[in-house]
Amino acid sequence: SVDCSFSRGVCDWKQDTDDDFDWNPADRDRGDGYYMAVPAFVGHKNDRGRLKLLLTDLKPKSSYCLIFSYRLAGEKVGKLRVFLANKKTAPVWEENKGKDEKWRTGKIELFQGAETTNSVTFESERGKGKTGEIGVDNVVLISGLCPED
């Protein structure tokens, strides 16, 4: 497994330069490191911010599971989407509201064919809300299929 979390991860994260705003580090409540967040008041409705995880050394013809924590806190805060580099047009994962402000776990299967996925992009789309935030943390890549809960 590869730890891509933000506080002590070994992965290569890049802010997209063609988007509307950047993701920023935010301190965790318990003080043990930080996560990446977009506050609800940043930008205008439908503006997007993209944070890209560069993946290297994935083996062709194998399966991986990307596991991450996410939170959509606040009324009409917006959308969180995940895109894979080799499937640019449609998101492979999307969430647009939280039932509450708790952290949840997202899982995405990465099936490597002859071409391997070389990046995963977390995209935040701004909603109408003025309070809350969209957050991502604890990003881990494991080989094999995603485990059942």
TrEMBL record:
GO cellular component, as recorded: membrane
Source species, domain of life: Eukaryota
Alphabetized PROSITE patterns for the sequence: MAM_2 (PS50060)
Domain MAM per the UniProt entry, residue ranges: 2-148
SMART domains attached to this UniProt entry: MAM (SM00137)
Protein known as: EGFL6 protein
